[in-house]
Amino acid sequence: MLHSMPKPSAMMRMLSLRYRHLLSMSPSSKKTQGFTLVEMAVVVVLIGIVMTMGLKMVTATLDNAAYRPSGSEAAISRHISNS
Length: 83
What we know:
The chain is mainly alpha-helical. The chain has helices at 8-14, 17-24, 37-64, 71-82. It is rod-shaped and about 100 Å long. The N and C termini lie far apart (104 Å).
């Protein structure tokens, strides 16, 4: 035997108080203004932290990079130093 769906009023009683207000709100009364200032500030701070870490890694890599002359440049510098 198939069970029938409960009536809407019975469904409302089954929902917790936390979510009941969402069902009673009309679509136009819901908060649709976007992000708050605090949320935007947190995102900006996180992006700044990530970029700072990345910049430190790039500068450390560039500082540690050694210049290695090619074969012909090395031969010329050896010839000059032997003269």
